[in-house]
Amino acid sequence: MQPASQADKATLFRRLHDRTRILVLPNAWDVASARIFEEEGFAAIATTSAGVAASLGYPDGEQISRDEMVEAVGRIVHAVQVPVSADIEAGFGPDPQAVAATVRAVIRAGAVGINLEDGIENSKSPLRDVAGMTERIQAAREAGAASGVAIVINARTDVYLRGVGEEKDRFGHAIDRANAYRAAGADCLFVPGVRDAPTIAALVKAINGPINVLAAAGTPPIPELERLGVARVSMGSGPMRAALTLTRRIAQELRGPGAFAAFTQDTITHAEVNQLLARKTV
Predict the structure, then answer these.
(1) Strand, coil or helix: what is 205?
(2) pTM for the whole thing?
(3) For each of the chain's 282 residues, which pLDDT tens digit applies?
(4) Superfamily grouping for domain 6-236
């Protein structure tokens, strides 16, 4: 069977947000992690900006160059057959034109979705103003249309994640931003930093579109999120950080008791890794 075209993958990825069932979207940071997620049966994969950056020696926050990020996305896309969404952080540039250039680049790399956030690094204001963010979403939408790929835009607001403003005002602030982003052309609205079921349920009712939540300690399990009406749940850099935690545990075990259990018990075999990466896609 011939691999699906990029346009077909984009259509499939959009359909996965129709809320008939929750989309569990794991975040990969390299080809091997992406292949593991695909082999375990996930319908689509997203990248994690922090994970991709860390794997190439950078901290998160657009410290990696656009070209290096796009190359990493391309490697993942060409190693799997499922749709891939690229985390492009705030868009890699100061203006909508830069965002459009980034979107065109990840589309050329084969991605069919993007994650675009309103948080600003190294700024007096933790969030981009709403007008500026909506312009960036519109630029991303237009870039996708011009490229012939109807990308799925996951617009992220960091109101809760960054603790912006008074706690009592955050719900209304997040709703206003999410609905403005939806009106600007976003397909899914991402509100990371919210973990309690009542707030998640209220967000689902108040936001005029599918919502994405970030899985973290204390987040309701997937069946409960689906019951609450969540369209999509992602893990961000969590799986990558878990892998690094295991690596640190291995180092501590080697330097301490000198044992090998941390990397010899229930570990994927050398042959399995080779088999995982042997398959080539077109």
Answers:
(1) helix
(2) 0.96
(3) 456 899 999 999 999 999 999 999 999 999 999 999 999 999 999 999 999 999 999 999 999 999 999 999 999 999 999 999 999 999 999 999 999 999 999 999 999 999 999 999 866 789 999 999 999 999 999 999 999 999 999 999 999 999 999 999 999 999 999 999 999 999 999 999 999 999 999 999 999 999 999 999 999 999 999 999 999 999 999 999 999 999 999 999 999 999 999 999 999 999 999 999 997 554
(4) Phosphoenolpyruvate-binding domains (3.20.20.60)
Query: What is the rounded CA–CA span in Å between residue 67 and residue 37?
Result: 25
CA 61, distance to chain mean position in Å, is: 14
CA dihedral for 244, 250, 251, 253, sign (positive or negative): positive
CA distance 59 to 230: 30
Please report, for residues 8, 19, 79, 280, the alpha-carbon distance to residue 3 in angstroms, rounded to integers and kept in the order given.
Answer: 10, 26, 12, 11
- Tokens describing residue 249: 């545990």
Q: Which residues in 110-138 are b (16+ Cβ under 10 Å) and which e? A: bbbbbbbbbbbeeeeebbbebeebbbbbb
